[in-house]
Structure formats: structure tokens, C-alpha cells
Amino acid sequence: MKRFYKAAAVEEVDGGFGISLDGRPVRTPARAALRVPSRALAEALCEEWNAQGETVDPRSMPLTQLANTAVDRMPAARWETVAELVRYGETDLVCHRAERPGTLADRQEAVWQPLLDRLQSRHGIALRAVSGMLPQPQDPHSMARLERVVSACGDFELTALHLATTSAGSIAIGLAAIEGDIAAGQAAEAAFLDECYQIERWGVDAEAEARLSQGRDDIALAYRFAALLRARTGASRQP
User: Fold this and answer.
1) pLDDT tens digits, one per residue of 30-52
2) 3-class secondary-structure state, position 1
3) Assigned superfamily of 8-56
4) Which of 3, 36, 45, 153 is 20–30 Å from 16 (CA)?
């Protein structure tokens, strides 16, 4: 699409902040007004629009795409999304450890156990860690608590959590990232610990490297989106 505007700007509107292009409000693909709850996020969206050249390339505007998803899709998909994310707690990546003794098991304990400890101390959610791949039933009270925590997310926060969790394969990692308790790089390290261990042993192939690169990018995007949302209060989200 050919660029049709000179400049994007933030507009304070009822219920948040909008983006205007030469005074005309930006709309989502579903033609809804693009309004976000944080000025910091709105300013970042403006930067994406202002950075466009002669042609507007939506692929170069990942924050805008994620905001569009939050506005257009999340309200109708909210409870389906909540249920999907809660299911990650039943078979969470960080709960499944390699058999001991072994270097991989030691790394998993060092990187993953603090994520489970954080989940329990912050939210009262106790997920069980097991050795091997066979899943073990999780405590029903903890799963109910997890559902309440995820359900409490707003549409924008839930959009970020969905991207972080599905990219990492872990709700424990996803929550830690979007709540700002770990950095994007730490989240990616935890998410791809097993893959990186196998690469160290056997080497890397192009297909695996492409998957890892995409996963890291998606986690970084979710982290930044959530950080910009948190900027409206200057604090991480409380349980």
C-alpha cells in the first residue's frame, strides 16, 4: 500500500489513546477505532507508522499488528483464549525435566525451578515438576487459581500473554515475561533450553535455527508490548 499520509500522531481519546494520520484516526482491519490503553504504546505505534517509506508494509509494524489483534479478535475470543492458556499449566514445559543425573537436568533445575517458585510466591499457583515426559495431574486448586489470574488480564495484556505463552510453550514463562519479572532474553533462554542443549551436542541446522529465531522474536515482541502497557502505571501487574 502506498503511503498516503505525512505524519502519525498520538491523540488522547475517551478510553485511552488513538493514532491519527494527518488528523484522521487509524482504524483496524475490522474498521474499529484503534485505541490503546497506554500512551507509551501509542507512541510506539506512531513510531512504526512514521518509519514507513513510500510503501506501508504491515509486516514491519508488529506492535500495530498485535494491537489490531487485541481490538478486533480478543473480545470475541477471550474465553477460548483463557482456556487455551490455562491448559498449558497442565503440561507446562518447565514442569517436565530430564532424568537425573545429567547436565540437561541440572540446567533445567537452575533455569526452570525459579519460574515455578515465582509462580507460587506471586500468584499462589503450585505446579508440580516431574521427570520424564508423562504428564502428572496438577493440583485443581492451583489450576483454578491460574484460570483466575489469566482471566484478570485485559484484552491487550491477554494478547501479549497468548503470544508469549504459545511461543515459549509455557504459561509460567509467559506470565513471568509479560509481568516484567524476567527479561525477554531470559524468557527465550528458558523456552529454548532443551533445543540449545541439543545444538551444543549435535550442531545446528538451518530449519532449527529459523524456528529458534522466530520464537525469540515473538517472545521479544510480546515482552515489549506488555512493557509498554505497564508503562501507564509504572509498575508490573499485580495478582
Assistant:
1) 999 999 999 999 999 999 999 99
2) coil
3) ATP12-like (3.30.2180.10)
4) 3
